[in-house]
Design a protein that fits this description.
Elements: E1 2-5, E2 8-10, E3 16-22, E4 31-37, E5 44-49, E6 56-58, E7 66-71, E8 76-81, E9 90-97, E10 118-122
Parallel strand pairs: 2-10
Antiparallel strand pairs: 1-3, 3-8, 4-5, 4-9, 5-6, 7-8, 9-10
Length: 124
């Protein structure tokens, strides 16, 4: 249902834009989120967005660097990542969630909507 893309290998300070394409017909009614999993670590919530883009949430370490957005007409979710740092390395996943806010957790994922992730590597 969800396919993330846009990952790659970049140097510290550079940018990437991730995309997530949805096939679900009712994409526009769901909260959507980005998660990431670094090697050897648990998956963590990065950012999420209200169905109408009226509200967003960012995990503290990405505030001011990452921007989440969505295009409901195209059924796409985006994550603009600027000033990337080594700690941003990981596989990024998009998913539909039942809520969006502080404490974004993979327990909030609904509809078993995990899609294939995209690998982001920051390396000098």
């Amino acid at each position: 249902q969800l396919q993330a893309s846009g990952g790659g290998v970049v140097q510290p300070g550079e940018s990437l834009r991730l995309s997530c394409a949805a096939s679900a017909p009712y994409f526009h009614i769901y909260f959507m989120a980005w998660f990431r999993q670094a090697p050897g670590k648990e998956r963590e919530g990065v950012s999420c967005i209200h169905p109408s883009e009226s509200a967003t949430y960012y995990e503290e370490s990405v505030k001011g660097r990452f921007t989440i957005s969505r295009d409901n007409g195209e059924k796409k979710l985006y994550l603009q990542m600027n000033n990337l740092q080594s700690e941003d390395t990981g596989t990024y996943y998009c998913a539909a969630v039942g809520q969006c806010g502080e404490g974004l957790s993979d327990r909030w994922v609904i509809l078993n909507s995990w899609g294939q992730g995209t690998l982001v590597t920051i390396s000098s």
